[in-house]
Amino acid sequence: MGPRPPVEVLRGLAALSEAPASEHRAVAAALGLPDPPDGTAWADLFLFQLHPYASVYLGPEGMLGGVARDRIAGFWRAVGRTPPAEPDHLAALLGLYAGLLDEAEDSPEARGRLVHRSAQALLHEHLAPWIFPWLARVVDLAGPFHRAWAELLREALSEAAVAGGPDEPSVHLREAPPLPDPRREGGEAFLAGVLAPVRSGFLLTRADLARLAADLDLGLRAGERRYVLDHLLGQEPVPVLGALAGHARAAAESHAGDLWAPPAVVAFWSERARTAADLLDALARDGAAAEAAAGTLVAPGTPRDGERGAPGGTA
Amino acid sequence: MDLNELNRRVSAARADTEARGETFYPGPSRVHLASYPPRERWLDWVELDSKAWPERKEKRYTLVPTTCFNCESACGLLAYVDRDTLQVRKFEGNPEHPGSRGRNCAKGPATLNQVVDPDRILHPLRRAGPRGSGQWEQVSWDEALDDIAGRIRTAMEEDRHDEVMYHVGRPGEDGFTTRMLAAWGVDGHNSHTNVCSASARVGYNFWMGMDRPSPDHANADVILLVSSHLETGHYFNPHAQRVIEGKKNGAKLIVFDTRLSNTTTHADHWLATYPGSEPAVLLAVASWMIRERRYNRAFVERWWNWQEYMAEVHARPHATFEEFENALEEAYASYTFDFASAESGIPAAEIREVAEVVASAGTRLASHNWRSAGSGNLGGWQVARTLTFLNALLGALAVEGGTYPSGWNKYTPKPPRSPKQHPRRWNEILWPEEYPLAMHELSFLMPHLMRERGGYVDTYFTRVYNPVWTNPDGFSWVEMLTDAEKIGLHVAMTPTWNETAYFADYVLPMGHGSERHDLTSYEQYDGQFIAFRQPVLRTARERLGETITDTRDANPGEVWEENEFWIELTWRIDPDGSLGIREFFESVKRPGQKMTVDEYYGWIFEHSVPGLPEAAAREGLSPLEFMRRYGAFEVARKIGPVYEQPVPHDELDDVRVDDAGRVYTRAPVPPSPKAAGGNKFDPDADGRRRVGVKVGGDVLRGWPTPSGKLEFWSRTMAEWGWPEVATPTYLKSHVHRSNLDRDQMVLLSTFRVPIQIHTRSANAKWLDEIAHTNPLWIHPEDAGRLGVERTGDLVRVATEIGHFVVKAWITEGIRPGVVACSHHMGRWKPEGQPGQRMSMATVALGHEGDGWSLTQKAGGGPFRSEDPDTLRIWWTDVGVHQNLTHAVHPDPVSGMHCWHQAVRVSKAQPGDRFGDIAVDQTRAREVYRKWLDMTRPASRHSPDGTRRPYWMARPVRPERSAYDLPSAPTPEPEGAEV
């Protein structure tokens, strides 16, 4: 049945992705991790930068819920479990995975094989397709505790994910449409696509947007990511598209060099990020296209809230 | 370290932790991203201003938690305080509150309506004409305090302590006021409980020694509600969300409800029982389970007081358990499905089906009754008793998925400077000897008892209570409140105008849920938590750097924070400490100075709440700062079966075990951070205290009942005059078919609507727009029979003492033969009085001889105010005040008012107008006497010469000698010379 993943390690790591609780200190100690930081660090990482929900990274909407969560809830039901309120939360998925592995081991042989196959299906279909690119970004952005947490989690999952994985990517990835071209599908769809990792091939966090604004010396508006990005594009579309292309290309390289993820996952994400980078470069080179990409809230060329000069400015 | 080794290490750590009974993995506690701002950002939260749309205007808030004050669910709220204007912009749920978990009903967010209510009372007012005349003058707090304190001081100096009374509607707090009354030495705590939940409490208490249920709905396999609990009722929001969780996990939901309520629409089995027949159905289920041996025999044998029953009822002190089982089967054999069907109108096959479902629950049966059938019927306390019978048969008590008793799922911390004294006198008006087994004060009989027994209350506080409107027989209250020979001074403490405040001498403005301090803990799941209510503007301003020591500086107008008020009043009653009262309101840290609310709650959070100081320290906060920041703290979860806990060895010293298995020890009570209170059991003859009960060779905690076990048979009831109902039985209600004339129907008058509060929401505009009237539910068959043609037609409903005129709502959502009228609405203000214009009718009161009448002169309607919405009020019908036409129906055992009414419904008569009320007070007094005659007074039935079983809990328990009944006068020997 292949390598047996360390189920208790997975359970411990799952617990540590939940909101901080006093019990976490003992769990972290058992895992050889440093003391968990205070709630602020946890909230910043998991509530503002990198939400630990599969649907955000696998759904074409790039948001909580939707078709990706429905598929995952369906998986819970298929293995005889009632889906919890958030069936795609990382902790829920890891808990289910560990539970299935335990059940496989405790069951008679034929049933055990069946349950083990279910566990493998969960890993290959609903965890591996997003967890490795996501953990890579956690390692990028988090403080020492969560960086160590992420490194341990990808190590704990990798062997089983790589061994015996299917050759083709999971249904989430196969059916994900690519990043739309704003020249054909409009700025709204384009913006939504940039923020949907499974379409763009990259994860664009609030921290990324803040860095991008700082690098380009642009104003950073407070609001959700879509609002922020829209206003960055509205200020200087060409440099912003160029910077996004650079972000996508860096992501493609990062995916390609991911030694922990299964090959089919690596291939999908790196190819998708490269394709996105090409499109973004093309848009940046084409001034009119850049305007189209930026034209979501207001017609191209219309100044926004005084960001580009006095009312009645450039036409 | 390789992964396998690490895995072994984590497994070992988990096993070690769990072997100690501690939690290794705490379980999901995640913030739902779509719903709640993460708590780390509460101090400075940015949102877009919805009113500025489509402009994207940022608003900066500081989010301050508090606790809703609108019903006893006391859910967590988060006030969004605008950092620029320092106004509350909205209230949403507090995700940190363990009971409500961020969810609210409509009443929570509508707190905002109450805060900005254009008609609310903002300044202390004093009567400037005769009582009830509507003439008021604004006075300073100092004037009011000095006057009230002076009267109370004089009463105390003259040893008239029992002439001071505090009458509470919505308590909304744990311990502050009872502590204060104990410090005052006053047996004057009066509650509303006997028009509310007393019946259910009696039913639970005589089984478990605790008076409220805490069903673990989320983990149940079968949920059994005798109520419309999914939408309204005690703790309904915290419970309803867990009922739905349970259902999502596959639990079956059984609902007993005569009406088609929203709750019944969620039920797998809906039993629309004839009112009062619920115990018959429950006993039929129990009887079948007993016959079929579908119960938990091991549990019954281990934890019921069956030996005591067999010894006392069957004179078989050495009976075996099997003999008891046979006796049990015989005792309940007559409760067949056919019998229950005949009583309830539910087909026998359906009851049998429900019985199968109940029996299938095993120990995962979560059941609940609070008001509903329990509060409606003579003998309604047997609803909770027969319901608990099912749990007790299954062993579904205090186990996962079962029903816990309240005391084990609630945490009341010890306050600083706890008074040790007890009132020396027994208050005969509140605790009359006719009702020795009543759990609570006979509050609704007060006008009758005052009249008959020459009662006088020198200073009477009504605190967030409105007996004129809420209680039955409200005109008796008007008569009492306007009689200076009965009430010396009436102080109405209320945030809003109400029908009782109109007859007060002082009206003192108190705060809504966001304007007061209170500490609460409620049994809402298998855990223990505390929640903090706080004046949110005060806390917001303190966060922004201000120092506020008097909450009036932050509240609207001169609205005061109630704790500060009581502390100040107490100091003025006893300015020099000579009465021995002031010391309980002095600072611990600064003796001789007033205790502040910060110190009071800070002391509790620091000394009396296990785990809170440590949790606060982890965030660099003091315990008080933590509670002001987050509003709630969970002390423990998954309490489990406390009754099975072994008594620790160091509590067992010179132990004696009596014949009943009760264990007594000389070891002192170990120190506890919890507040004292609850049941008190007498020591053994040598002074040892009771510590537990011996079961199967082990000394276990057991149950806080006289026997230490679950009391299938109650010695207390048997010895205090009620032997025939000492086991779960069926009593025919006063509205049983056999008690009705052919032309009478049953009126259900108790049901609530989910979006109103009893008496404080009349100006909550969002709520009023949804629900502002209370038509009479009537089945089409009955409507046809009575000639009521259309919904909206006026009908006259005649009770025992009068009648009211109301609009009909013809609906199949009610049983034929039964009508229903929600007790909400029907609010009124006399002509010339101020009031809540959105939902109060303006009325004329008529009084001639023993006759009273009320006539509506105008309904609700639009008016100009600072709120433009008040010009948009489109409704005028604000309902009918039916309770005025209800006579008092005190249950002779529980003391609870039995709300259901036997009525005659007819088409309105010529001259009848909507909202008309007429009442005959002579008849009201006759009905009172008729019910009083059903009692079995302590003076004739007390087994020990006392007024009340000492073990039963009581608010502000008097000292032991006050329990003694007055000695009966010795009859003069015949022929003796005087």
Structure description:
The complex is a heterodimer of chains A (315) and B (978). Chain A is mainly alpha-helical and 315 residues long. Chain A is built from 16 helices and no strands. Chain A has helices at residues 7-16, 24-30, 39-49, 54-58, 66-78, 90-106, 109-141, 144-162, 171-174, 182-194, 197-200, 206-216, 225-235, 237-256, 263-285, 287-294. In chain A, helix 1 (7-16) runs antiparallel to helix 6 (90-106), helix 1 (7-16) packs antiparallel against helix 8 (144-162) and helix 6 (90-106) runs antiparallel to helix 7 (109-141). The radius of gyration of chain A is 21 Å and the shape is globular. Mean pLDDT of chain A is 89; it is low at 296-315. Chain B is 26% helix and 17% strand. Chain B has 27 helices and 34 strands. In chain B, the strands form seven sheets. In chain B, strands 25, 26, 27, 28, 29, 30, 31, 32, 33 and 34 form a ten-stranded mixed sheet that branches. In chain B, strands 6-5-17-16-15-7-8 form a seven-stranded mixed sheet, covered by helices on one side. In chain B, a hairpin with a 2-residue loop joins strand 23 and strand 24. Chain B starts with a helix and ends in a 37-residue tail after the last helix. The chains are: A mainly alpha (315), B alpha/beta (978). Chains A and B meet through helix 1, helix 2 and helix 3 of A and helix 1 and helix 21 of B.
